[in-house]
Design goal:
The complex is a heterodimer of chains A (about 160) and B (about 475). Chain A is an alpha/beta fold. In chain A, about 30% of the residues lie in helices and about 20% in strands. Chain A is globular, with a radius of gyration of 15 Å. The longest helix of chain B has about 35 residues. The chains are: A alpha/beta (about 160), B alpha+beta (about 475). At the A-B interface, helix 3 of A face helix 4, helix 5, helix 6 and helix 7 of B.
Chain lengths: ~160, ~475
Amino acid sequence: MKSQTARCLILACGNKLRSDDGVGLWLAHWAEERFAAESGVRVLSSQQWTPELAQDISQAESVVFIDCAVDATAGSVRVMAVEPGGETAGLATHHLDASQLLSLSKELYGAIPRTSLLLTVGAGSVELREGFSEVVHLALPEARAELERAVARVLPDFTG
Amino acid sequence: MSQTITIDPVTRLEGHGKITIHLNDQGEVESANFHVTQVRGFEKFSEGRPFYEMPSLMARICGICPVSHLIASAKACEAIMSVRIPHTAAQLRRMLNLAQMVQSHALSFFYLSSPDLLLGLDSDPQSRHIFGVVGAKPELGRAGIALRRFGQHIIELLGNKRIHPGWVVPGGVTEPLAASKRDEILGMIPEAYANIELALKWYKQIAETFAPEIEVFANFASLYLGLINEDESIEFTDGALRLIDARGKTVADGITANQFPELIGEAVEPYSYTKFAYYKPLGYPEGSYRVGPLARLNIAKSMGTPMADGELSLFKQISDNRPVQSSFYYHYARLIDILYGIEKIEMILSDPLILDKHVRATAGVNRLEGAGQAEAPRGTLHHHYKVDENGLITWANLVIATGQNNNAMNKGVLQAAKHYVKDGKFTEGILNRVEAVVRTFDPCLSCSTHAFGQMPLAISLVSAEGEVVDRVIR
């Protein structure tokens, strides 16, 4: 199977049944509509990041990973650069983090995106339920704005 | 002083399980058990639901093989409806089931077991994962990942979702295949062939180095159960079941989904939530049998596709045309299954009716009971439902592959533990071998749930007095 190349790959993960863990999927859904007119933007979302995504990443010019963060202040929105690396000891089969995916992309396909960013939203709750906690619900406008800024950062011709 | 060794959880499996090995006063292995420590309850909470919801509900049992549950469930529903699905729908379902088999086998072989096969059973456990494979042999890692993508993408093209597609429904499928999707799948086939050929070639190079493990990895006589066609070729979606003995002689043949409950019983052991299936005429545990890739190849006389037929002939030479007994060969059988799957998908796509628009039959409740069966990647899967006159489920029973392999897995764990654990001493490599026996079966304990956080592996050596005398954590 040939991967589709993208100027900006938005790669989200999460579980909508685990409250704030689903914020990545929510933002990905929003991004599909928001960037529908941008031919270079491709959005992929899944419950977990798995090794099969490495090929898509290797062929993207830039990537914006989106996930919730259980170790950050609830509702805080952060965007940071991410590099290949990450702890591989005791690696899980079903789930990799952003830096592990970049490592896999580099080792398997010899390429990584020029720019790789990770957008996280601090989780207030990951209980078994649908819908976000109030603090994450209130953070959604900021998360959308940060995602727009991240896309503009990797796509200089993006005018909004 | 008697002792117990516990491996909890067993790693690189689908779901959560543990192994306990009990030693006697002389430090010899007395017994060993593979415990499935989770309970699901799908049969119970489906009661009261309309029967036509069952395929989608049952698919949620598993995130790796939801298609098998979709298909077995839909067939049970069609027995209730008393309908025969259109030819094109049957072909499309067959292709979906094969795509799932390819991706699931790729996960088992390349992600879960190839770290042992490539890096060695005594290698650093921190490296025994897909990154370790990629570092040591990148082309093998690429092939495995690509084969998984191949299967997943076909599922996504057909069912519009990689996991839990709602495309399979009672009566057929919800929409026909578009020509563009057919062409896209055909375009992926050459790369898939190249990847499985690479894997088969590599496996044959390394298999002999595992001769000691082949001897003791669940290597014993047993019965084997699997689907075949009337021409005795392998089948995954239709056909009927055949049960053979350890010499290859047919014990029971042409077992339909309706006949399955008359012939197959389920025993219960106090140490596991998974039941133990057995062939009723022989009783339990004598009637225990194995299912899955090894069983299928032991039963089938041909694959019905040229390249896989060549491999089947080599496979049968391992045991002079008698059933291959060591579960280590599940690995090889899995690769042959994949090759067959790719060839068969290509053949199905050349069916002149494959783009036909008539893909669904409709009917209401015409019978109050129905059963369906199919081959999941790990082996035979059976769904059996009863409904009231309004079509609401009043009773359901599922017999899954892992339950049908349960007795063999336990016997295999005991065989390996007796061989490797001496004088009450064990190393990480020895315990990994015991786990690797279970991995050959690729049991699917509960892949529809996923862990939150990192699962530790703790191995404890506990005295009869309950004192922990040794402990390994990884």
